[in-house]
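User: I'm putting together notes for a lab meeting next week and I want to include a structural view of one of the chains we've been expressing. I don't have a solved structure, so I'd like a prediction I can at least talk through. The sequence is below, exactly as it appears in our construct file.
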Amino acid sequence: MLNIVLVEPEIPQNCGNIARTCAATGSRLHLVRPLGFDISEKAVRRAGLDYWHLVEVADYENLEDLFRRHPEALSDLWLTTTKAPRPYPEARFTPDSWLFFGKETAGLPRDFRERFRERCIRLPMVDAARSLNLSNTVAVCVYEALRQTGFPGLLGVGEMAAEDPV
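Assistant: Thanks for the context. Below is the predicted structure for the 166-residue chain, given as structure tokens.
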């Protein structure tokens, strides 16, 4: 199962969109504090996130807490950053990869990026563009990881496949 890690996310709508991507793909969502929003059951219900129950969500005080609780993440992680030297298709994802995404205003911490420099990837874009929206970046990377691993556990066809063509 893919693991999506948001490090200090700030915008609740992005987190909601990412949670929906996790729900649709069976990915786990990991949130590293501080968070720019409330994820209590009451807040989630008020926000109308009716798919939240489909997402396995865990939160952590900081990155050290995450790695203490999940040391396996160290052996199969990928960090997305606009500063990365190589594009995301060069990553070799596994079904259990950990994909890290930084906060909207600053990205991943520099020391974290430097520690795992060889595991940093980026989405190609024109020079004038600063970055893509966080939830879009997560969706692109999640579906690339799933494509590389054969979309495990996901429905491969829609209802039209059973219909006779006209």
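A couple of points you could mention at the meeting. The CA atoms of residues 26 and 153 lie 8 Å apart. Helices lie at 12-25, 41-46, 63-69, 110-115, 134-148.

User: Perfect, that's what I needed.
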